[in-house]
Amino acid sequence: MGTTRREFLVLAGGLAGGLALAVTAEDACATPETMQEAIRKLVGNATIRPGRVRLDLPPLIDNGNAVPMTVTVESPMTATDHVKAIHVVTEKNPLPNVVSLYLGPRAGRARVSTRVRLADTQTVTAIAELSDGTFWSDSVPVVVVLSACLEEGLI
Amino acid sequence: MARAVLSLPAKARHGEVIEIKTLIAHAMETGFRRTQLGEPIPRDIITRFVCTYNGDEIFRAELHPAIAANPLLAFTTVATESGTLEFKWSGDRGFSLTESATIAVE
Amino acid sequence: MKADCGRWLRHVVATACALIGCALSVHAAEIPLAERRSGYEFMGRETRAMQDDDVTNPGVLWVLDGETLWNRTAGATGQACAGCHGDARTSMRGVAARYPAWDVASGRPINLEQRINACRTGRQKAAPLVYESRDLLALTAYVARQSRGMEIEIAIDERIKPSLNAGRDTFHRRQGQLNLACTQCHDDRWGKKLAGNTIPQAHPTGYPLYRLEWQGLGSLQRRLRNCMAGIRAEPYPYGAPEFVELEIYLMWRARGMKLETPAVRP
User: Fold this and answer.
1) Which of A41, A101, C131, C198 has its C-alpha lying 20 to 30 A from C111's C-alpha?
2) Sign of CA dihedral A100, B27, B87, B79
3) d(CA A47, CA C61)
4) Helices C161-172 and C241-253: crossing angle, nearest 10°?
5) A134, part of any domain
6) The domain C60-145: what is its CATH number?
7) Is the pTM of the predicted complex or chain greater than 0.80?
8) Does domain C38-53+152-265 match CATH 1.10.760.10?
9) pLDDT category, C93, cuts 50, 70, 90?
10) How many structural domains compose chain A?
């Protein structure tokens, strides 16, 4: 891994004594194209329509390491009309897939909460697969701020 | 040592939709971080969570590195009959943990 | 990618801060008691909900570990904490809200972690727990959890006053390559933004706490070391008297505020 000029300047002004190499996330990064590929792998060639899904994420995120997320899908959740799966994907995380959730009529309600990592300000998308074979989605733009005063590899 | 925390009602009415919350201690190492010396830290995550209700699967999740450390999963199920709910987490390096809870349904 | 932008941005912020400060020591006004606000109030709604929910607050994993350790025998005496202190819910109630405190045996003030280790070595005849080890964090979190909701009130008498003053001086002294004093951000500029984050008032109302940035639970001293790294100062080692003095000052500064352990913070 090469050191860019900006990184060198910061390292030069770094901590007195001790290594100043930070623990960083680099390398691969999802793009809108890899996200589309990931979506195709999950849902095949089906048409995905916006609607019926509600993706709740804070618009302004305190810290991208743990972002509370709730996905809700309007559905009676009966044996003949229910949500089979919900997939969440991102466009700027290192990998596009976040989580895939498999429900069914025994869920009673299509509503799942978890906490996710978001690497950067971006749009997050949730796609629901219904028992009738249709696909629905919701996309939410979020702003991720970075922490001031980090450890820089120091515990 | 505490590895998982479960929250669900001990009793429910037949047909009631109950909320289940699960929290498990796990670093969910993404595989994208590096040590101070630049060496990659290998991925080590929980990849799958399954909940069964008297043996029937009622909820399943496939997790990727984008799920935060100490994963929380909160979902619902219909209280159908008294019995046992089993929660199983599995992942990289043969990680496996099973917890269970009983429910009385009237 | 994210970190590259972050480091560059922090470099810009650092330069700006360095340019602001040229004078010597800083004597800023203290925040009026009625205007003090916990870091809780500077977080987003969802992060606050994470702290408030007793089941899903990630800190609860450490509190439960602490409960196990409380009941586990240790050391040559084969005694558990519970052996002398019984049910922590009663015996430890209020303890964390009044630490650091003067320790007659050692003739100096000690914080809660040091109190726990004093019991381990002196009473249980067990090895002390290492700072920031999971065990010490768990026990401290469990003990401090018993004071949740109580008002912080540390006793200031003639013995501890010099330490309080030393802590106050540290808080007001410019340090590090950025030549910044704690008070400049946390007394003068709280509520304003630093690289997209809102600057809190820096009250230790929820320690040990789950910091999202750490993706784990950590102590007040770990957070203070982060601060010192942030202003490019050589951080004091864990357990240093300077840290205990700072803790005394910070807890005194937060007197009357409620303890939130285990808190969640960005």
Assistant:
1) C198
2) negative
3) 42
4) 90
5) yes
6) 1.10.760.10
7) yes
8) yes
9) very high
10) 1
A135 is a domain residue = yes
Q: Which of B1, B21, B68 comes nearest C68 by C-beta?
A: B1
Active site residues per annotation of C: 227
**Predicted local distance difference test score (pLDDT) of residue C73:** 95
* pLDDT value, residue C29: 77
pLDDT digits (tens, 9 = 90+) for C198-251: 999 999 999 999 999 999 999 999 999 999 998 999 999 999 999 999 999 999
Please give the C-alpha separations between residue C109 and each of A16, A39, C36, C95, C194, in angstroms, as whole numbers.
Answer: 29, 59, 25, 14, 34
Q: What is the mean pLDDT of residues C31-41?
A: 95
- Which of A70, A115, A144 would you mutate first to test chain B, the one with the most B CBs within 10 A? A115
* Domain coordinates in residue numbering, chain B: 4-33+40-105
Range of the domain at A86: 28-144
Ramachandran bin of B31, using left for φ above 0, alpha for ψ from -120 to 50, beta for the remaining angles: left
According to the CATH classification, is domain B4-33+40-105 in 3.20.130.10? Answer: no
Q: Which CATH number characterizes residue A92's domain?
A: 2.60.40.2470
- What Cα–Cα distance (Å) separates residue A142 from each residue in A63, A81, A123, B33? 12, 31, 6, 23
Q: Model confidence over C2-35: pLDDT tens digits?
A: 445 566 666 666 565 555 544 455 666 789 999 9
How far apart are alpha carbons B86 and B71 in whole angstroms?
A: 17
Does the beta-carbon distance from C46 to A149 stay under 8 Å? no
Q: Parse chain C into domains and list their residue ranges.
A: 38-53+152-265, 60-145
CA-only gyration radius of chain C, Å = 19
- The phi-psi region of residue A17 (left if phi > 0; otherwise alpha if psi is between -120 and 50; otherwise beta) is left
DSSP assigned state of C38 = -
Mean pLDDT of C47-51: 95
The contact set of B with A (CB < 8 A) is 17-18, 30, 32-38, 53, 56-69, 71-78, 80
Q: What is the sign, positive or negative, of the torsion defined by CA atoms of C146, C150, C156, C162?
A: positive
Inside any domain, residue A151? no
Q: Do C45 and A119 touch (CB under 8 A)?
A: no
Joined tokens for residue C249: 């000052």
Sequence-distant (6+) residues with CB within 8 A of A55 are A69, A70, A71, A88, A124, A125, A126, A138, A139, A140
Query: Residue A14: pLDDT band by 50, 70, 90 thresholds?
Result: very low
The reply to whether A89 falls in a domain is yes
Q: Given a cut of 50, is residue C178 above it in pLDDT?
A: yes
User: What mean pLDDT do residues C162-168 have?
Assistant: 97
